[in-house]
């Protein structure tokens, strides 16, 4: 009897605690048995160049497959620097290595397979800007694009301000063929406020979020099991860049009066 009374007392205490405004009730739709674990991050706390233990650069002005107008530089603070707790990726109108614009494209040295990847960022404005937070599979070095796979966590083009794109590209589904798989969400203040861009990536699907609002999902069961359809069973690295012009970003020309323009990133975090 004493044990029964004790159990009832404990049960009542739990119910009262759950009704308290200071105790959050778990949401049955989002509760997980295992809390996400932070496995990598850059909080951009130290002014200067990006952390060379975490980031490397793509360098050059070859158009990057999209007829982009900028030259990507390395370890040049005019184009990539930490400033007041933010990573600044800045595109500038200047003559450099035969190009009329400069910018930066940073790659993580670490790669991940599955998890939640997120970045808190404020985007540039103006016709001709094309910032992106995206990922490529490590096999792209040997298999090439698009067989290596691409996950675009966030893309935005300045001539269509406020429209944020989340997309995947594979051998079977890509923009060259016009078969890419993606969706858009309207965020009106992307150029004046920071927003959280994220994916949650498992063996079976990839979910796309802005400010923790899910707006798109791609599923392996829908796209197919072959590597040409679902190349997302391999480690991917993260890329932060800002292009100028190009096949998409420059679709309606480039406003030459707006430069320099910058993408600001408050932090990047990866959970598993």
Question: Could you list some keywords that capture this structure?
Answer:
272 residues; mainly beta; Jelly Rolls; 10-stranded mixed beta sheet; 7-stranded antiparallel beta sheet; 11% helix; 41% strand; disordered N terminus
What features would you describe in this structure?
The protein is mainly beta. It has a single domain (38-271), classed as Sandwich (Jelly Rolls), CATH 2.60.120. Helix content is 11%, strand content 41%. The protein has four helices and 17 strands. The strands form two sheets. Strands 1, 3, 4, 5, 6, 8, 13, 14, 15 and 17 form a ten-stranded mixed beta sheet that branches. Strand 4 (80-83) and strand 5 form a beta hairpin. The radius of gyration is 22 Å and the shape is globular. The model is unreliable at 1-32 (pLDDT under 50).
